[in-house]
From TrEMBL:
One of its GO terms (molecular function) is zinc ion binding. PROSITE patterns: ZF_RING_1, ZF_RING_2. It comes from the Eukaryota. Pfam families: zf-C3HC4_4. PANTHER family: B-BOX DOMAIN CONTAINING (PTHR25465), E3 UBIQUITIN_ISG15 LIGASE TRIM25-RELATED (PTHR25465:SF5). This is RING-type domain-containing protein. InterPro entries: E3_ubiq-ligase_TRIM/RNF, Znf_RING, Znf_RING/FYVE/PHD, Znf_RING_CS. Keywords: Metal-binding, Zinc, Zinc-finger.
Length: 62
C-alpha cells in the first residue's frame, strides 16, 4: 500500500505582513495566520479609538 503525500498550501506558511516564513505563528478568529509580532504590531498601529482588531488580509480586500 503506497502512502499518499500530504499537500500543504505554501501560502499558509508565510506571513502576509512581513512576507516571510511564519515565526511564532498565530491564527486569528477569521482563520488567517500571522507571525505573533507582526499581528501585534498591526493591531498596535490601528486607530487607538476603536477596540476592534482587524485582519490585514480582510481589511485590504474591502
Amino acid at each position: 500500500m503506497a502512502l499518499q503525500g500530504i499537500q500543504i498550501d505554501q501560502k499558509k506558511l508565510y506571513c502576509s505582513i512581513c512576507l516571510d516564513v511564519l515565526k511564532d505563528p498565530v491564527t486569528i478568529p477569521c482563520g488567517h495566520s500571522y507571525c505573533m509580532n507582526c499581528i501585534r504590531s498591526h493591531w498596535d498601529g490601528e486607530d487607538q479609538k476603536t477596540e476592534i482588531q482587524t485582519c490585514s488580509i480582510i481589511r485590504s480586500e474591502h
